[in-house]
Amino acid sequence: MTDQEHVRLAEAQRICEEQLEPNAERVDRSGQVPRENLEALAAAGLADGTFGGDAFRRAFVELLCAACGTTYFVITQHLGSCGQIAGSANTTLRERFLAEMVAGKHYVGVGFGHLRRPQPMLRATPVPGGWILNGVAPWVTGWPALSATIYGAHLPDGSHIYLYAPAVESDQQRVSAPLPLCAMGATETVEATLTDLFVPESDWVRDSSPEQLAASDTANLCNNVAPMFGVTQGSIRMLRQLATKKPFPVLSQAADALESELTQCRQTCFTLGDGDKSAAAWREQALEARAWAIELGVRAAHTGVAAASGGANSLDHPAQRRMREAMFYTLFQQTSEILQGTVARLARLP
């Protein structure tokens, strides 16, 4: 990482230690987007999704997820949108919004995870001057904090289009109450129903295809593991804290063992993520590494629950929150391949 990346990462760690983690259980129970956390990160220049290389982004995500999964999941939508708009061929869109986005003054969410589903849920019909959107985007995270959303939709020819739409409720854009989630409930994730919503050509972000989405999912098999590494790191930190209060050597031993395995898993995943994806065995190895990262995170969180004893059943205890967040990250950006690989590893199938 560069010197500037190290400086920003140190500031992120300070915010996580002083603000995010101490308030994580309160935020988790609040049911509301943690605007104060978003503001603190933005003030430190950490709402800029165009900043930093892969090493910085992985370390940043791991820090956030070790501290407060809710904050991570809200801001990661925005960081991804910054990258989408920064990379768009639509220069006027960049000029209109990107500066305020990277400053944390204009949050943009996403609504395109449904594009991985076999049946189209949101369709875009070309009309003079733009497109008409009809259908449902089932997951739009952080709605009350959003200024806009980038929706992904199917075009009549089966290709994908990504369009920027202001986050304003109307007869054409209706959102549900926050979805009743057992994890990340405070992200205020909603379902958006679009009925003849017109999006002008000026708000086009990019075009894509099912094949390009599938290729991106494959290429990123080992690049989306940092959230689970964060849960693992947070659970290890909690085990070490418990070891100072309980007279059980096994707690420190467990923390050491998990720390060693985390180092190995992290190195394996990131080596594969940065490696030659055309190699014959790469896909199989990457799937195995992804499943390992998922299993490790769940196992570390479960270890924390066991070590915390009955206290872990309290909503005031971080052990139960991390267990739920590990469940969430198990499903995060899941494809059919990842599902099968994870189930096979967890069931100890040959």
User: What count of domains describes the coordinates?
Assistant: 3
Rg from Cα:
20 Å
**Major sheet characteristics:** 4 strands, mixed
- As for the CATH topology of the largest domain, it is Butyryl-CoA Dehydrogenase, subunit A, domain 3
Into which percentage range does the β-strand content fall? 15-25%
CATH superfamily of the largest domain: Butyryl-CoA Dehydrogenase, subunit A, domain 3
Description:
The protein has twelve helices and eight strands. The strands form two sheets. It has a four-stranded mixed sheet with strand order 1-4-5-8. It has a four-stranded antiparallel sheet with strand order 2-3-7-6, with no helix packed on it. The radius of gyration is 20 Å and the shape is globular. It folds into three domains: 3-102, Acyl-CoA dehydrogenase/oxidase, N-terminal domain (Butyryl-Coa Dehydrogenase, subunit A, domain 1), CATH 1.10.540.10; 108-208, Butyryl-CoA Dehydrogenase, subunit A, domain 2 (Beta Barrel), CATH 2.40.110.10; 212-346, Butyryl-CoA Dehydrogenase, subunit A, domain 3 (Up-down Bundle). Helix content is 52%, strand content 15%. With 350 residues, it is an alpha+beta fold.
